[in-house]
Amino acid sequence: MYDFGQDLLNATQGYAAFRHDTDQGTYVTDDVFFIGGRRGDYETGTCFDRKTGRQTERSACRIEEYQRGKWEFAMSDTIMETNALPALLGIPSR
């Protein structure tokens, strides 16, 4: 079974990727807020420190977190576009 996101009750660190009303690749953690670039890439994105609210070096926003959100949305799209949810849940096809 695939899990997307995280257990909100037991998470030790916050993370959320955004899909709508933002540039692709945008995410937030406890420490940073990353706005994906206009082309949805990391290289032209902007990183903000959540404690100060000020823009900071892009490297403060880890590319791994950016890639995590992109992967989760790509997998979600694939599941929905191919109607794969019943197979993943073990539901026999009709």
Any overview of this molecule?
This protein has 94 residues and is an alpha+beta fold. It contains 2 helices and 5 strands; from the N terminus they run βββββαα. The relative contact order is 0.17.
List strands and helices in order, with pairings:
Blueprint (H helix, E strand, L loop, with lengths): L14 E3 L9 E3 L2 E4 L10 E4 L5 E2 L6 H19 L3 H5 L5
Antiparallel strand pairs: 1-2, 2-3, 3-4, 4-5
SSE string, helix = H, strand = E? EEEEEHH
Q: Find the count of extended strands (DSSP E, 2+ residues).
A: 5
Largest sheet: 5 strands, antiparallel
The termini sit apart by: 21 Å
Overall spatial form? elongated
Count of discrete alpha- or pi-helical segments spanning 4 or more residues: 2
Percent helix range: 25-40%
- Beta percentage is 15-25%
Q: Structural class from helices and strands?
A: alpha+beta
Rg: 16 Å
Spatial arrangement of strands, main beta sheet = 1-2-3-4-5
* Mean pLDDT over the full residue set: 84
Uncertain residue segments = none
Can you describe this structure in just a few lines?
It contains two helices and five strands.
